[in-house]
Amino acid sequence: MSTPAVKIENLTKIFPLSLRKRYLVAVEQLSLTVGDGEVYGLIGPNGSGKSTTMKVVLGLMAPTKGTCRVFGNDSRDVVSRNQVGFLPENPYFYKYLTGAETLKFYGKLCGMKGPALKERVDELLEMVDLTGARDRRLGGYSKGMLQRIGLAQAVVQRPRLVVLDEPTAGVDPSGSRKIRDLVLQLKKDGTSVMLCSHLLEQVQEVCDRIGIIHQGRMVKEGSLKELIALEDQTEIVLKNGSEALIEKIRSLIREEQGAELVTLGHPRTTLERVFLEETRQDAPKPAKD
Amino acid sequence: MKQLLKKAGLVIAILMAGGLLRSPLENRLETRLVETHLLFTPPAKNVLDVLGQESAMAVLGGMRSVVALYWQLMAISDWEYQEWDDLAKKFEIAALLTPRDTDMWIKYAWHIHTNASASVFDDASMTEPQQYLAADDYIEQGIGILYRAVKQMPDSVDLQMDLAQVLREKRQDYCGAAEAYKRALELEGHPAYTTRFYGYMLAKCPGREREAYEHLKMLWFEDEKHHMPSMRRDLADLEVKLNVPEALRIPGLENQDERFSRQRSGQPEVP
Amino acid sequence: MSDTTTSTAESAGKDASPVRPPLISPSRIWSLATVTFTQLLRMKVLYFMLIFGLIVAVIFNFNPSGQTVAQQLKSTKDVSFAVMNVFSMLFAIASTAILIPKDLEDRTLYTILSKPVPRLDYLLGRLMGVLMVVGACLIIMYAFLALVLFVQEQILVSAELSRLREQPQMDSETLLNMENDMRKQGLHWPLLYAPLAIFLKACVVAAVTLFLSTFASSTLFTIIVSAMLFLIGHFHKSTYEVLMEDTHANAVVALLGKLVVLAVPNFALFNVVDGIAAAEPVDPMLMGQLFLVTAVYTVLYLLVALIVFMDKEF
User: Fold this and answer.
1) How far is CA C106 from each of CA A116, B63, C178, rounded to the nearest angstrom?
2) Over the stretch B158-196, which tens digit does the pLDDT of each residue have?
3) Closest CB to B271 among C81, C169, C269
4) Are A85 and A150 in contact (CB under 8 A)?
5) Which residue(s) pair with A98 in the sheet?
């Protein structure tokens, strides 16, 4: 079995609140594993310990107790960062750098240089659909564009694990759809992803496995199917069905022993879907979303 | 919390150890910098006493020269209003801050021995003898300033030359002036006429006439450029004074009549 | 979009023991430094150069009565170096104090430190960026000063010489001596040591500020404490000596004084600028030693900054 991307064991993080003996336990006895190539969603309400856990993975914080390993390396060791990319919530990069300069800067920090870096920057700009805005300063980017450049920055050195903190916070639905597509692309490429969010729908769409964290403890963990599947129910969506046909179906159900009709009515599309349908008719605007 | 204290302890220990390691090198460097006049640190106590807190901060913050310049400029209005005590106070601050600024010293002294001493004659509240006494006081004060300056910078030709001139013109102290010219002669960059002036002053200094004669005679034979009217006159006078036998006297000095006429007008060579 | 596929897949096959990034990587530090440099330049610090130009221009035209030629030239140098000094120190303190809190506020610190960037590299890059701006500004200011001083020297000296030539009994040797005296305060190569000394001082100031900003709770705190240490560093030694002479200082005061003298850099050493501006001869060996002292201070303060910053949590 390959080394897991993230292996957290019995992580406890305590913050001293004041000089007197008052403490805040942000995370308590938390264990989780993100498999190699897996997309893991860590969900929970604000203040549940998501960000703390993530910062421990990134080496921005040290565990008070327990261990955290990234591809087998201690997360406190700078070596582990070779394999990690990070997109913080609402990132502000240097406003005065252009998109291309930003990616170049982060590439250099990862030890990349020369034509290889240049090529990688072009490739990334293409990937996040910002080629047209490459020479514009980040000060003039929209929130969605910033988020995308942030994602590009996170994967500049082709990390094997990408950590995303509320990647779609404050981004409009079409922007967040783009980001979702990028995450799915990463998954397809075999990159492990650790996604922290409180937007359940988003997590549901992309994650293989999900952990729910509450008050610093893991309360439920499992695959999406395990968490949400209702194995004994079946949904049928019918188009152009006449009243008579529907009545026929009802009677068929009545005839079946043990079967029960739970709901019947017009299916609702998601609001996101409606918004996207509506906005797609517009003429495509270059660069800015 | 324990970790925090441990870290703070470590930081302090490193800074202390570093301080112990660097201080010998630093102290040696400081001494050398002071010796070579690159560095001058006025005693903090004096600076605080003399200057206000803000000026002192500026000085200690490394802007000594500018603060000194400021006080020199402030003294200009005292000059205009003939407030000599105020002027002296300001120059004293400048002197404390930039004790090696030759021009500053010369200007300071000039204000006192020339401007201040002349101004007393405009003071109607004094009788004439009082005015002369007050003027003499200022002259002495100005000379005192120059002596202090010379003490700070014994290697400055300009100061020695200025001192000699003031002693000669303001105090008619020819022996003192001769000494100042002599010290200037020992320094590099003195004007060509210094050596002649040294001789002229010796000639007027009681008891040193023989020395003066030997010096001027040496110059006379050394180079024709020294054959100035003052030199002819002084040599001729000294030959008379010292009873030099006729046969040993320097040929071609100016004739007696001319000599006497010059002596009466009392004009020495002016550089 | 699909381009990433191949590349990430490649790396995904690698073993879990990646190459350890070197502790100090010049290229990484350089890229952090250049970004800092750009960041600070875009904050329009160069406008200050205009103010400097204005001050020097005013001095150039400023001729209070009674100033000799040498004094006028010296005034130009004194005022210019004082302005350069003030600018460098203020800039070194303020910009260094702002950088880390700003990075933290914008979360750029997260993205930088979550890359394989050792924290020492981050500190070094930031420090170097600030010093690059200070250095560049000093070069610009010095170039301007040199130009003004040169022009002033030519104008004033030739005017003074033609005045002196008309004096009776003026001989060429005296004239030459007087000209040398005036030109001594003009433009000479050793004058370059002055901006160098200012730069060295800025290095130490920036390193001290960087140390403070690694644990300070606010930018204002950092700036105020840095400025205080800067002033204390100018007179702690002489104050300590006075204290020891004057009072029968009790053991506690004596010890505290000694500790301050040991911990706070002796900034007074860098006031050689005054001596250099006064055209005192400069021994390059001593400047070398000053450089050495600067290096010791900078390394020392970087070291303690690193100790604080190394396992700081964000």
Assistant:
1) 29, 38, 61
2) 999 999 999 999 989 999 999 999 999 999 888 888 899
3) C169
4) no
5) A137
CATH number, domain at A167? Answer: 3.40.50.300
> Of A109, A143, A183, A188, which to mutate for an interface test with C (greatest number of C Cβ within 10 Å)?
A109
Specify the number of domains making up chain A. 1
A22 vs C: CB within 8 A: no
Q: Which helix (H) or strand (E) holds C294?
A: helix C284-310
Selected for mutation to probe chain A from C38, C99, C115 (highest A CB count within 10 Å) is: C115
Nearest to C21 among A94, A111, A189 (CB): A111
**For residue C241, is it within any domain?**
yes
C120 CB neighbours in chain A (<8 A) are none
Q: How confident is the model at residue A289 (pLDDT cuts 50, 70, 90)?
A: very low
The residue ranges of every structural domain in chain B are 204-271
Q: Which of A96, A110, A120 sits opposite C115 (nearest CB)?
A: A110
pLDDT above 70 for A89? yes
Sheet holding A73-74, edge to edge: A23-34, A6-16, A65-70, A73-74
Which chain B residues are closer than 8 Å to C263 by Cβ? 12, 15-16, 19
Cβ <8 Å between A111 and C28: yes
Out of B23, B62, B101, closest to residue C273 by CB: B62
Average pLDDT over residues A95-122: 91
Domain of residue A205, residue span:
6-228
ipTM score here? 0.82
Does residue A106 lie within any of the structural domains?
yes
Query: The tokens 């073993």 sit on which residue?
Result: C15
Range of the domain at C141: 24-59+67-310
* C312 contact A CB<8A: no
List of chains touching B (3+ CB pairs within 8 A): C
Residues of A in contact with C114 (CB under 8 A): 58-60, 81, 84-86, 163
- Enumerate residues 6+ apart whose C-beta is below 8 A from C86: B63
How does C150-185 read in b/e, with b if 16+ C-beta sit within 10 Å?
eebbeebbeebbeeeeeeeeeeeebeebbbebbbeb
Separation between Cα atoms, residue C114 and residue A107, nearest integer Å:
12
- Count Cα neighbours of B208 within 13 Å in the Cβ-side half-sphere: 16
How close, in Å, is residue C109 to chain A by CA atoms? 9
Long-range contacts of the stretch C215-220 (C-beta < 8 A, 24+): C215/C308, C215/C312, C216/C97, C218/C101, C219/C97, C219/C98, C219/C101
Q: Which residues of A170-195 are buried (b: 16+ CB within 10 A; e: fewer)?
A: ebebebbbbbbebbebbbebbbbbbb
Evaluate if residue C211 carries a pLDDT over 70. yes
pLDDT class of A288 with cuts at 50, 70, 90? very low
Are the Cβ atoms of B61 and C231 closer than 8 angstroms?
A: yes
pLDDT in tens, B74-94: 888 888 888 898 899 889 888
State chain C's mean pLDDT as an integer.
84
- Mutation to test the C interface, candidates B16, B38, B161, most C Cβ within 10 Å: B38
Q: What is the pLDDT of residues C131-148, one digit of tens each?
A: 999 999 999 999 999 999
**Minimum CA–CA partner of B189 in chain C:** C177
Q: Compute, in degrees rounded to 10, the torsion defined by CA atoms B193, B196, B197, B199.
A: 160
